[in-house]
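Question (not urgent): is this output format expected?
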Amino acid sequence: MINRPTRIGKYDIISELGRGATAVVYLGEDQFNDRKVAIKVALGVEGMGEDEARRFEKLFLNEAAMVGKLSHPNIVGVFDAVVEGEMRYIVMEYVSGGSLKKFCTETNLLPVRQAVLIIFKACRALDYAFQNGVIHRDIKSANILLSDRDDIKISDFGTAQISQSEHTQIDGFVGSPAYMAPEQINEEAPSVQTDIYSLGVTMYELLAGRLPFQAANSVAMINKILTEEPTPLKAIRPDIPEKLVEIVEKAMAKDSAKRYPAWYAMARDLADTFPQLERYSFEISSAEKFNALRKLDFFRDFRDSELWEVLRGAIWENHSREQSLLLEGDIGHAFFIIVAGQVKVIKDGKLLNVLKDGDCFGEMAYLSGDKARRTASIISVSEVQLLKIQDVQLEQLSDACQLRFNRQFLKTLIERLAWTSNVLAQVKK
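Got this back:
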């Protein structure tokens, strides 16, 4: 019988949740924050070969690197990583509902609409992770946890590729064979399409009650992924809407170039399948908005409290490509900051500039006062996400926050004048 500790660090241990070859997970109580937590304790490396021990070390450090990095309602929060003598453990958010794996059998399938909503939320969460420099690399039904009936938490970032990490990343053959994209099997550099493929497999599994490829062992599984096509979803579930079949097939295309180019594209197709999902498609949590703005140069000097102040008074907008956002000559009372995407600036029918993430437009009308007219037209080049701030809203912000805006506007004006001077100099040559 294995003795269960009564306390690990500052956490009281309630029970054991699970045990594997490399770690044991306990349910703990964080008395200070009044919450239950999952504590993943790394087992010792005794008996491991040198390569295995090194890989084990990387897995721990990789997961530890996630502490405080991702704050999203559909990603398991990692609160702490501790090394105390020979003991190493990671403290995470406790999710009580188990994994999606139990709903991946023909006798225990979720309703189709519920399965689609879950995959939609996973798309949103993985897009957020990707925007923060994280590619998961081990997406599967067992790593998507249920926090209630149709809400999810993505877990287990131990094998993730993390940009700008100070730790050596895990390379080589990474992931679970049944869910691995062909390029992942071939040990090519991972991309967003790698995770998209794995989520496509998970979606197939949720809808069909079985994996797309059946094999007796990992070697045979890998061969099928590389050389064969999966059993058509319609052959297993004739009732599945054709649009969902198309989404799964596109996500699971063997050629990564034929998959969805980005998470938002897959999420949009999912939202289009059921009208009730449309309300989710552009809903972004406050934490997501805050983190998106924090990454922009425009808000680099803003304090956290000022950034929250901006969010409370601003409007979050999403626009499709080739959409007119401002028209030259119109009277304007708002300015815009580009959160994601690109827009082009048109004056007298001529292209003046292309603006991207962190750039602003429309501020001259605001600075000029009442009845100021737009000096140029703005058209979206791609799908674009904007923060819209009206002049009356800006006036209600604190003096310190307004000062930050005015300083940023001055900086923007100087940069544009410099750019214009350079263009004119080139024309004269």
